[in-house]
Amino acid sequence: MKEIKDKMIAQIKAVFPEAVNKDYDGNRLDLTVNKEAVPSVLLYLKDSMGFRHLSHIAYVDWIEQGEFELVYILWSPLDKVKLYVHTRINRENPVIENIDMIWRQANTYEREIREMLGIEFTGLVAPDEFILEDWDDIPPFRKDFDTLEYVNRTFWHRPGREDAQDVRSTISERSGEEIPDFAKKYSR
Amino acid sequence: MYNDKNSKKIVETIQNWARSHSIWVLAYGTGCGAIEISPTMTSRYDAERLGFRGAATPRQADVMLITGYLTVKTVKRVVRVYEQMQSPKYVVGFGSCTINGGMYYDSYNTINLLDRYLPVDVYINGCMPRPEAVLAGLSKLQQIIREGNANGAEKYLENLAWYKENQRKIAPNWIAKAPDLNW
Q1: 3-state secondary structure string, A115-130?
Q2: Pairing with B29, which of A20, A100, A147, B135 sits 20 to 30 Å away (CA)?
Q3: So what's the pLDDT on residue B119?
Q4: From B73, B105, B170, residue closest to A154, measured CB to CB
Q5: Given pLDDT bands bounded at 50, 70 and 90, which one contains residue A71?
Q6: How far is it, in rounded angstroms, from Cα A170 to Cα B15?
């Protein structure tokens, strides 16, 4: 497996010198590329290196760094290697090339990402609504979307939940444990 | 003959007694509660001995059993199914998700209070309620029907504007296009 991966890295680096790779144990291989290079990298991986299957497009919201991250997860059935192609997009103007001409199933993933994270895919042909209907707020999977505030605005609460015990603080008081700062904001 | 008050009362009593013993349940299986319906209906708990049985379509059903959380998208379908049902019709909210949102109380796409969108006759609490609780809740519904107090359908018609306003709040474009009670 190690030789196969080393050979793959050498081949990718020969064609795309700016790609950054990170190695993991087992059959996993990670690659970070610019967003402009994504279609050409993926097309090269599919046509010349045997990564024929697109398993998933994962998405992460790095709100502190002002970026979105897309992860294209590829699988090579011949070499049994998983390849994760990472790319970062600016959060202010999230636009990236769509890749559904390379894999047709990418169309579905891109529709979901467009709706849940608000990333625009240039040239994506698909109906506007996918999962959400009548949505008129910011995309709900962005980290700056406050679900509880939205619920207070849209739905109603039945009284009785206010005096429920906060499990975290109750247990820490009982055992004299210090709550870390990052956990305090989740306490009621 | 049926116009005087006493005869009407007698007829209604007999009707309610009959209705309470032939409850056809439309299990609207959202969320995780649908898994409790199968043991309730099959040989382990055998709900049919008490007069409950499944209905194939909304138009044949008396009770709609809403078994769990409802997303904004499912509320639209539930309202449509409810309006298709023939009166007398009853709604049973099943599980804490229909009562106060349950563990999804702060989710952006699940409703919290079912009785703002549909008239609920009986709530069964629990997460999830066991089949015994389901049978107890449906028996309570039988009792309410026999007493003549299960008037959710009339309540829905009387307060239609209020219910429609609440439904419109979460589904503005859909309610505008939908016909009123005339599917």
Answers
A1: HHCCCEEECCCCCCCC
A2: A147
A3: 93
A4: B170
A5: very high
A6: 54
The boundaries of the domain holding residue A67 are 2-132
The CA distance from B173 to A134, in Å, is 7
Whether the pLDDT of residue A153 is over 60: the answer is yes
**CATH number of the domain that residue A79 is part of:** 3.30.460.80
- Give a yes or no: residue A155 inside a domain: no
Rounded mean pLDDT, A144-167: 84
Taking CB atoms and an 8 Å cutoff, what residues of chain A touch B100? 157-158, 160-161
What's the CATH code, domain B5-172? Answer: 3.40.50.12280
Please name the residues in contact with A54: beta carbons below 8 A apart, sequence gap of 6 or more: A72, A73, A74, A75, A102, A103, A105, A106
Does residue A185 have a pLDDT over 80? no
The low-confidence residues of chain B, meaning pLDDT below 70, are 1-2, 180-183
Enumerate the residues of chain B whose CB falls inside 8 A of the CB of residue A140: 108-109
Q: How far apart are the first and last CA of chain B?
A: 35
Q: Under a CB-based contact definition with an 8 Å cutoff, are residues A97 and A121 in contact?
A: yes
From the list B44, B55, B142, the residue with the least C-alpha distance to B92 is: B142
Nearest CB to B108 within list A134, A147, A161: A147
Q: What percent of chain A has pLDDT over 70?
A: 98
